[in-house]
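Table 4 source record.
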Amino acid sequence: MTVNTLTRPAAIAGTKLPRDASAGDVVLAYLRIQAHAMRTLEPSVRTDEYDAVHQMRVATRRLRAALRVFGQVTDGEHLAGELQWLGRELAAARDGEVLSEHLRDSLRPMSPELLIGPVQARIQGHYAPRRAAAHTALLETLDSHRYHRLLAELDRLTAGPPRGPLAAAPARDVLPAAVRRAYRQAKRRIRRARHTPAGPARDVALHQARKSARRARYAAEAAIPAVGKPARKFARQMKRVQSVLGEHQDAVLARQEARDLGIGAHLAGENAFTYGLLHEHELHQAERLDTQAARVWRKAASRKYRRWMN
């Protein structure tokens, strides 16, 4: 089994636990899977292998989501804060990779006559040094005392036993209620975004809603060994919400990047026409994804996907 498959719901669902497992047993098993993935990925991150930073970032997010949502099961509040710090460090190395790929993908379907000037070369030249600097900074993070303290704290936590006040309670009683709280936070943030006028404030609100949907998804994935298929189906719906809102955020960031690249091209005496087209393309993409997100959320929030939480 590869690291990529190790963190997925199918692997989590295959975790061997008795039907009467405690909440602590289920959450601890999930934390161990993600902690193992995070450690296993570190060498690939150091050598800058493709997608390794993304996968390590996912493992840290899953760990943090479980610690936040199941705070009454495992006492890991401080560790959740440290994982947030590590996630930010990983994000700095990942974001340049995502944006450069996104812009190149947006350029690909354009007719050759619309690609005026050294557009591809400018994008490459813009991101290559940023990515190199971000990787160097990430290596410093992975060599830091703070990171090694985080790993030591994670080892202590996953060694068990869980110390939360609800750790010994039946998982089927505790975990659905915790996932329900995570879902309700996502619902509140989606509603807030929908009532925010179009513009930067709405983009921020949708980004916050995406984070909550992701947390609800990961919490449901952690509950799969105790709940089974209903938790898996709900997690799948939250993943769809997260994915659409993630594409929306990519379009929002790419729009700003297209503007900045266009300004740089103009100041260098190049024709900025293509960057204007890119900006307009990303604007329409964000609007389309905003509308799509509303439809995807309505389906995901259907009662049939949430009955198991009651």
